[in-house]
Amino acid sequence: MAIQKPSHTLAKIHLKALHTKSFHILFTLSFTVFINMFCFAQELPKPKDPIKPKPITDSTVVKTDSLLGLPMPFKEIDSTRNDSVAEKKEFLTDIVNYKAKDYVSLNQRLQQTTLYNEAEIIYGDMTITAGVIVIDHNKDLVYAGRLKDTAGVYTQSPVFTQGTNVVEPDSIIFNTVSKKALIFNSRTEQSGGTIISDITKKENDSVYFVKDAKFTTSENLDDPEYYFLMRKAKIVPGKKVVTGLTNMFIYDVPTPIGLPFAYFPMSDKHTSGVIFPSFGEDNGNDRGYFLQNGGYYFAISDYIDLAVLGDYYTNGSYGLRFETNYATRYRFNGNLSIRYENLINSERGFPDFSKSTIYNIRWSHSQDAKANPSSRFSASVNLGSSTYFRQSINQLNLSNAQNNTLASSVSYSKTFQGEPQANMSITATHSQNTSTEVINMTLPTFQGSVSRVFPFEPKVGAKKGIIQNINFQYNVRAENRIETTDTLFFKKEMFDEARIGAKHSIPITTNFKVFKYFSMSASANFEENWTYNTINKFYDQETETIITEDLTGFDRFYTYNFSTSIGTTVYGLFDFKKEGKDPKIQAIRHVIRPSISYNINPAFDQYYDSFEVVDANGTTTDDIRREEYTRFQGSIFGAPNQNFSSSLGISVGNNFEAKVRDNDSTATESKKVILLNNLNFSTSYNFAADSLKWSPMRVTGGTTILNDKMSINFGATLDPYALDNNNRRVNTYNINNGGSLFRLTTANINMSYTLSSKTFEGSGADQDDPAIQESIRSGGRADDLFGKPQDFADQRLTDDDKSKDKDEEPSEHYNYKIPWSLRLAYAVNYSNSTRQNEISSHSLMFSGDVELSPRWSVGASSGYDVKNQGFTLTQFRFERDLLSWRLNFSWVPFGTYNSWNFFVGIKSSLLKDLKYDKRRQRDQQL
C-alpha cells in the first residue's frame, strides 16, 4: 500500500464513436488508399557506364568588405520552453509501507494520516513502530507516540530505527525532508552502554545532540544504580561521544568523580587504545609504590592483536608482558604470552637487599582438523624460571604457585597415504621440575612408522588362524636429549651434555583362538639401538679410583625378546530372585578376566667388558676383583640386558555389578549399580633367577559411589619374602619365617568427592571462567583445592552475571534455594618396606562456595595435614555482585602466601578502567 497526497476530483470527458452514412463511400476511399500504397512504378535498367558531372570553375572573385565579419552560426532558442517556475519536489522520494492493527484514517481537510495501535512505518532505511503515528503532509512531519490504556498507563513506546541505530523514546517528531528529528526521553544503546536523554536532537543519520543525558551500563534503565551526567554532548553513533562537563552519580547522588570535558570513543570493532594501570603500595618487600597492568592495546587486524603491559615500582623493580591472540577461521588459532620481571627487594646498602630476574613464556597453538587432514602442527609451551609463579609480583592465581612441573611440547606430524601407510612426526619437548630446577629437553624427537602389514592375509574374507593374522611393522625413534639446570638454561653449557641416539624396532605379532574360549597372542620384537655417546671405565692405581670416560662416536647394539599370552573372560551371575519375592538386590554379576603371559629376554653378554680393581694395600690375587660394565651404559634408550630372564606373568582382573530394583514403580527394568569398577591382582615368576623368583604382588582397585559423585581408588603391594635383621629381602618366604603369607609393604587410598546444588538439578559446574582457563594453561589445577584462581582483571571484563541463574527469578525472600558447592579430597599412604610401619603422608583437602543471597557469595579453600598436624594453603573469598559493579575480596590469612586483595569496579568492558583495588602482597621470600 502506498500513501498518496489527496487532490480534487477532475472533470470527466466522454468520447463517442463517429458513424458514416454511406458504407460504399468509405469502402471506395479505403480501396483507393490501399491501391496507392501497394503500387510500384516500372524501373529502367541501370547503364553500365554512368554519366559523370563535369566540374565548372568560376573565375570571378567576389570581394568582401573588411568591416563586415563572417556570418556567425546562430540558433534561435524558444524562451517559452524553459519554465522559470521549478517543479515542486515530491513529498516522498521513496516507497512508504505502513500498517496498523486498529485503523488507518485519512483526513483531507487537515492533510493528515493517522495509524492507530501497533503502528509501523517503513521508509527507506528508517523504521518507526509506535502505539500511534500521525503523518502531517503539509508540514512534512511524522509524529510517533505512546498509547494510554484505561488504567492510565502508557504502552507501546516508539522505537526509531535508522540503519544500525536504535532509539527508544517516549515520543518523536521526524521531518521527512530534512531528516532531522526531536526525540523525547530516549534510550540509545552505544557500544555496550546506554544513553538516556530527556531531549535529543537528531541532526542527521550520523549526528545527535543531547542535553542533560545519562550514560550508564546498568541493566535497570528505569533506576540505574550509577550513571554519568552529560550536560551537553554530541554523539556520532558507532564512533565517538564528545561531552562537556560530566561527573558520576551513584543512585542520583553526585560524586566528585568527573571531568570538565571528555571524549569517549565508540566502536563495535576492536580498536587500539591505552590500558590504564592500577596503583598501590608494596610494604611486604619494601618496593614502594607501584603501577601495575598499564600499557597499550594494539588492534592490529581482525586476525591478530597485541597487548603490551608493564609494572613499575619506585624502588626500581619493573615487569613487562607481551600478550597476543591470533586466529584464522578453518585454519588455526593460538595465543602467545611473554612475561619478564626484574625484581629488587629492599634497597641498596641494606643486608636484605637482593636482585633477580624471572621470566615465563607460554604459547598455545592448535590447527583446525579441516585445514590439512594429512599434516598437523600443534604447540603447548610453558617454560621459564622455576621460581616465576612463586616470586612474580603480578601473579594472583594461587593454584599456579603450587606448580611442581612446567611442561612444553611442539610437534609436527605428517601422514603419507598409500599401502602401507607411513607416518612421521617431529617433536620438541620440555619438562622442568620447579623444586629441583632440573630441566629435561628433547631437541628434537623424530618418530617414524609404517602401518601394520599382513603378508599372509587372504584376498577375500576375514583373517583367521595363526598364519593369516601374522603382522609386522617398522618403527624408528631418534632423540637429541638434554638434561640441564635452571641456571644453565639456554646457555652454551646446556648443550655440552646432550645425548643423541636412535632406536629401530620391528614387532611381529599374531593372535588366534584356542579351545574356542581362549584368546592367545604371540609376539617377537627386534630392536637395534644407535648411539653417539658411550663410556669407558678403568681403574687408576695411582689415585685408586675408577675413572669413567665419556666417548663420542657412532656405536650400536642389537637386542630381541619373545612373549606370548593367553586369556579369557568368565562371567558369573548370582541371582537372588525367588518365586513370589522381589528383593531389593536382584542379582550380582562377577566378571573375571584371567591372563597368563610368558616372556623371554636373552642375555647379551657380548656387549659387556670388565676391568680389574685392586683393593687398598692389595698384595695377593684375592685382593683383586673384576668389575663388569657396558659401554652403552650412557645410552639414552638404555643398555642391553645382561641377565637372562624367563618369566611367567599372572594377572586377574575383576569387575562387580549389581542389579537393584528401581524405586520408580513405573520402571520396567532393574537399575544397574557398579560395586567395583576394577579389582586387579598381578605378579610374576622368574624361572631364570637364582633367588627371589616371585615378584611382589600388586593389588589395585577403584569404584564410584553416591551416584558417581565420589571416586575411590586404592592400591597395595604384597611381598611374599621375609626380611633379615638388616631389613633386606632374603630368599625365604615370609610364612616360613613365622609371618603371614604376604608382607604388606606399601598401601594407598585416594578419595575425591564433588557435590553441589546443581547436582540435584541435573547440571554441572561452569568451567568457562577465564581465570580458570588461564590457570590451566599455566599448569595449574581446574579445581580450587589449592586456592581458587582469581584474576580480578579478567573478571571485570566479563559482563555475564554468573552468580545466579538467568532463567529463574528468585523470590522476594530468597528462601527456596541456596546454591552451594563442595569439593573434598582425601589421601593416605602407608610404607612398611623396611619395617618402618608408618603413614608416609596423610592429608585432607576441601573447598566450597555458598551463595548466601542472589548477589552475595563466600567461599574457602584449605586442607589439613594429619601427619604434620598443620593446615595447608588456606584462602577465604568474598564476592558481592553490585549489579553493574563487582566487589571481590580474597584473603590468605597465614603461611607462605599470606596476603589479601580487595577490588571494586565496573563489570562492563567499556568502563573497565573505572576501578579501585588495594592489595597486600606476600612477604619477601628468599
Could you walk me through the main structural features you see in this protein, from its secondary elements to its overall organization?
Helix content is 4%, strand content 53%. The radius of gyration is 46 Å and the shape is elongated. It starts with 22 loop residues before the first helix and ends in a 6-residue tail after the last strand.
| Global structural class | mainly beta
* Global geometry: elongated
Number of helices: 6
C-alpha termini separation:
83 Å
Residue-averaged pLDDT: 81
The proportion of residues forming helix, as a percent range, comes to: under 10%
Query: What does the radius of gyration come to?
Result: 46 Å
Please give the number of β-strands.
52
Largest sheet, strands/sense/barrel: 30 strands, antiparallel
Uncertain segments are: 1-18, 31-44, 794-807
Beta-strand content estimate: over 45%
